[in-house]
């Protein structure tokens, strides 16, 4: 990942987490990453957002199971679903896809490949990456949502550890 060498209060790092519906995985990632930023007192250095590559759930709050698990772990999910737009590729310093399908959806918005350095996958940062995808929990039970929380938590910890080194 190379999008910005130096993060400062004047030049905060803008990060957007992206899944399909923007109601389960990416709101969880947004909430967890913001929570970790808050715990470290790094709020001035980061701007955190999320979006979905589909328009299915625009305007909705995060899924109730996602919110329930997050709350149990002291994480608040505040997002309202929005669609990821091509302009977001210019706006954000990195765009973090939850799985390969959404990674491809994002790449397909980057017509001439000028943003390829800033499009990454969440599990690139997971110490236990398995197949590299954060599994879609939408049609399953509570266990799937718990699994998403755990995967995203450890991936966000590793990502923030790396980004902290760029703060000046
Ligand atoms: P998400 O989960 O991409 O993690 O927000 C989904 C939410 C909704 C649908 C699929 C996945 N859906 O098909 O409506």
Summarize this, please?
The chain has 168 residues and is an alpha/beta fold.
H/E element order: EHEHHEHEH
| Quaternary assembly | single chain
Specify the overall morphology: globular
Major sheet: size, sense and barrel closure? 4 strands, parallel
Tell me what the CATH architecture is.
3-Layer(aba) Sandwich
Q: CATH homologous superfamily name? A: Response regulator
User: What is the count of distinct domains?
Assistant: 1
The radius of gyration computed from the alpha-carbon positions, rounded to a whole number of angstroms, is 15 Å
> Structural class, from helix and strand content?
alpha/beta
Instruction: Report the mean per-residue pLDDT as an integer.
Output: 97
Q: Write down the CATH topology.
A: Rossmann fold
Uncertain residue segments: none
Bound chemical compounds: 4-nitrophenyl phosphate
Helix % is 25-40%
- Compute the number of strand runs: 4
The spatial strand order of the largest sheet comes to: 2-1-3-4
Distance between the termini: 18 Å
Taken as a percent bin, the fraction of beta residues is 5-15%
CATH class: Alpha Beta
Describe the structure.
It is built from 5 helices and 4 strands, in the order βαβααβαβα. By secondary structure, the chain is an alpha/beta fold. It has a single domain (13-164), classed as Rossmann fold, CATH 3.40.50.2300. It has a 4-stranded parallel sheet, with helices on both faces. Helix 1 (25-39) packs across helix 5 and helix 2 crosses helix 5. It is globular. It starts with 12 loop residues before the first strand and ends with a helix. The chain binds 4-nitrophenyl phosphate. 4-nitrophenyl phosphate binds at residues 19-25, 56-57, 136, 138. 4-nitrophenyl phosphate (4NP) binds at residues 19-25, 56-57, 136, 138.
């Amino acid at each position: 990942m190379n999008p910005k060498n130096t993060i400062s209060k004047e030049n905060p790092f803008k990060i957007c987490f992206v899944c399909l519906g923007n109601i389960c995985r990416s709101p969880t990632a947004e909430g967890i990453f913001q929570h970790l930023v808050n715990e470290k007192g790094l709020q001035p250095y980061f701007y955190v957002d999320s979006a979905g590559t589909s328009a299915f759930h625009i305007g909705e709050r995060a899924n109730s199971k996602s919110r329930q698990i997050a709350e149990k772990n002291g994480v608040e999910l505040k997002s309202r679903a929005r669609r990821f737009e091509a302009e977001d590729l210019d706006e954000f310093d990195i765009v973090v896809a939850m799985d390969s399908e959404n990674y491809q959806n994002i790449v397909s918005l980057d017509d001439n490949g000028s943003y390829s350095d800033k499009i990454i996958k969440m599990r690139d940062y997971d110490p236990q990456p398995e197949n590299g995808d954060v599994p879609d929990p939408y049609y399953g039970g509570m266990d799937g949502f718990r699994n998403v929380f755990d995967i995203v938590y450890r991936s966000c910890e590793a990502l923030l550890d790396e980004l902290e080194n760029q703060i000046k």
